[in-house]
Specification:
elongated; 2 helices; 85% helix; mainly alpha
Length: 54
Amino acid sequence: MKKSLEENNIALGAAFGVVFGIILGAAIDNVGLGIALGIALGAGVGSTLKNKSK
């Protein structure tokens, strides 16, 4: 079954969030916190993109 565009936006946001979180975590010397914040913010951005595409 093909995923909908809405599901892809959340996954894409979370993926970019992980990358951002790793960079942020390396900068603040706490990679675990950076990844957690990145996933949360990325999923939020993906959810916002999902709502705007409707």
